[in-house]
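Hey, resending since the last one bounced:
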Amino acid sequence: MIDVETAQRGYVSTGELSFLDHYQNSLGQTDSAVANLVEIMADNARREPVIADLRKQVARTLAAIQEIVAVRKNSGFETAQTLIVTGESRRAMEAFRDAITRMKLDEHRLLVERETQSAVSYHSAVVSGILASTLGICLSIFASVLVWREMEMHAKNTAKLRTVNKQLADQ
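The structure tokens again:
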């Protein structure tokens, strides 16, 4: 958008056709940039009004700039200068910049929300992992104690059985 505005100013102030070429190229790049931005932002339904406002501001700004270029082409510098003095193109560009600023703020807010959600998820996963590991260790210790007690009881019973067998054998 800035390139479009710069090329328009260059053409209006000098009348050089090379600025018109740059202006035409910049118009195409602006359309592509808006389409890419819309595609990037399309993942969230809450952004639809923001996207609609951006498209409106781009169209308004481009219309004001195109009008000035057409007037300069067809009616000359003085007429274009009079149109510029009305301030419509400046107001349109300010509204466009305001829309971009609102989008940046909204994107920053979304980024902070997502980072917060990510941090909460990460901490939940870490806590869950620690709890699961602790529970696994506790269950392993408990099972080991039960096996050890069973082995100890088995050894005592075996010793008792040997003693009883020995006593029976001695009688």
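The chain is about 90% helix and 0% strand.

Sorry for the duplicate.
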